[in-house]
Amino acid sequence: MSAPAGADRPSAVGADTTRGRRPLAAAADTSRTGDSLRVSARPKGDIETTIKYSAKDSIRFEVQEKVARLYNKSNIDYGDMELKAQRITVDYSKNLLTAEGAADTTGKVLGKPVFKDGGGTYTAGRINYNFKTKRGKIAEAVTQQGEGYLHAETIKKNELNEIFGRNGRYTTCNLENPHFFINATKMKVIPKEKVVTGPFNMVIGDIPTPLGFLFGYFPTPGKSRASGLLFPTFGQTSDRGFALRNGGYYWVVNDNVGVRLTGDIYSGVGNSFGGYNLMAETQYLKRYSYNGLFNFSYSSRPPDIILPSPSVNTNLEYRKPRSARTLWVNWSHTPTPRPGGGRFSASVAAGSPDFNRQNSYDPRRYLAAAFNSTIQYSKTIRNSPVNYNVQLTQSQTTNGIMTFTLPSLTVGVARQNPYEWFGLAPQGRFYEQFSISYDLQARNELSNQVTARTLPNGLPLLGGTNEGSVIPVRFSNLRPFLRNARNGMQHNFQISLGSYPVLKHIILQPSVRYQQYWFGQRLTYSYNDVARAIRIDTVRGLNVVSEIAGGLSLSTNVYGTLVRKGTHKIQAIRHKITPNISYSYSPDYTQRSSLNWVNPVLGDLANSQGQPYNVRDARTGRILNPVSFSRYNNSLYSVPNGIRASLISFSVDNQVEMKVRNNNDTTGTTPFNKVSLIDGLSLGTTYNLVADSLNLAPLNMSFHTQVARKLSVTANASFYFYQRDSTGREINRFLFDQPNRRLARLNNANLSLTYQFNPSQGKKKSVVKRDVAPTNILGSPNQINPYEEYVDFDIPWELNSSFQLNYTDPGPIPTRRNYIRPRPISSASLQLNGSVKLTPNFRFGYTTSYDFISKRPVAPNLDFYRDLHCWQISGYWAPFGEFRGYGVTISAKSSLLQDLKLNRNRSFWNR
Q1: What are the CA-CA distances from residue 531 to residues 27, 535, 629, 793 (Å)?
Q2: Parallel/antiparallel/unpaired status of strands 623-624 and 109-110
Q3: Tens digits of residue pLDDT in 125-140
Q4: What is the value of pTM for the model shown?
């Protein structure tokens, strides 16, 4: 039934004993009089829209008293307001809704009122609500505000949805009887903004504590991000005193940009100030376009230790910084790929060499020996085979060496078929296989590392040095820094002449390669009679060097299959062999001295036999005892080495797989599975037809396979064919020609084994893929360890193991005394990491490695995590090593109360 809005009494037909829904009041009716343009409406009353109601038991209307009563699982919808309760009373004369629960025979109250209004939800013992003024009084109320829950003896709500509570409790625990709460006699809540209390104290486990203050302020932003203060954490360090860390302000600029300004301050000791750290971080994102993070950090610390060490060891653990003031910049920019559009990306990590050693909490950054930065833009031109890439790169090491590439340009032209240039239609002719591809590379490189200046054969060099040097990075050294620059350009034309079958199963592929190098400088060599040494000068200008080479290759595939008759688990084994023979030729460039090689007259300089260098025979015109110098030594690109090469290369690849019957197949669609036994076994070597000695290059071998989809095996080795003298230098005699004959000698090898242990997931024995820790999204705290609060309880346990072994030939047995022969096994280590779920809420993790050479564990680390519902406890322990220490943190899980925590730690940065 419905009644017109503004009516003096509700229309009623009688009690409704069904589960139906009926409108208690409807919008006003309209009627027409004689003139169709005149429309009259009844005056608008207090009820603005339809009230919908329902009840499981009955609905009774008391027309004279203007009261409607709903019994058993009652429900009322009125606009944005929704009310559910065991009993609801609607008083139209007072515009009042009253809701309450009802006790059963055992005394348990059923159907407690649940009230929703303006996005807020309230659970209460009794509710009185005026739907005209939109004000209400709620007894024994519980409501959620953001991540927090408000419990109050009595709540008053106004038309702005502001809440005034008395004898209230504020908590982030979602239990009816929370594990902890903030107890206050008076509270005011402004939804999606803040909670303000009078005097309060903390109650933990129903035990009042003296922790409190004269007033409380708790922000409850409606959005996931909000501007506000970042409260610092307390700590202590051995070299800088007490500390307040990560305090500052977070500013929400807009929906796309967030700025974090934080800092650390250290007390020092006595009159010595401990210094400070400053950090500015900006996170930005634009949906479907890009996202990024820019971080600038600055640190000022005491140049010397200010707190004495309690250690009695004379070798102090303190490492004196090379600079008291350091800075660091991190920038990452990642675009969203778009078809046909340009792509700008950046990955920058640069700053003072000592910054990470002095300030980083991440062991990976603390131990890193080098950092690289790249800013690049790449694009493929639409409707064109041309693409280009522009890069600005920088690399630096912890010892102060910096290298800048400003810029690096790459232009590529995809493979083109010349016959298409003339508009010819494909007809299957041989020339249709001819193709040309082109790429250009250009670089301008700046470095503060000056390389050593030496000459071959130990020839004296004017101003030479056997050791390099490093130019300090500062503005006063800009001129020598620029003078040390290198630049050049390389053009590469790859000409393919197609592929042709030979003897039906062999593929012949001829090819031609033409390269051209452009350099901005070249070297000139002259002999100084006074100093009896060679002088090198740098001449600026454009210099062009060309190189051409050609070759052909023969390749095929050979299959060997063993098929078992009958019904067997292993039905067949197949061996695939891919042999390849190729030939390449490049001419001798040493005679083209005007281009890239020079044989200067060296006066009376002679070799150990007294023969002078570069003396031309007057009769034959040949150069006796020649020694050549490259005009482009230490250039960016490898120019032709000047030696004629005629190379034959041999290689063979092997793959072995078997066909295994699938016992789980019941439909017949997949009766067999393919299982790989050897993913790859490659062997290859090269023979130089025109070399005067040591024609046969070492044999290189690589092997890879995966066993049971969990054990991965990778091995690489290099074998030499020639004998050695007592100094370890190879001589032109095969090992097969010596009395103790053998084909080859193992020179170096490495072996890698990786195995992942984890329980089965259903019937699959494959590796369980763990999710990564959540990324640092816009506005979220930048934690020291991004994995410390991430736990995956879906995996009961796992263990990842990795074994690494490296072998290097130690050389011949020494004949002289006091010579220590190096170890053949240069490194052998086992790395282990994993976790165990001891209980549904407790996980234990471990990371360690064992060095078999030093016979000691390296960097062991144990960590644990315990979920305490609304609290959590986590910690780690590194018992020994450079990063030894421990840390324990007990904290509230809610990010709203992220500063409500107790931690204790002692680690490698605050011993």
Answers
A1: 111, 9, 19, 76
A2: unpaired
A3: 888 888 788 888 888 8
A4: 0.64
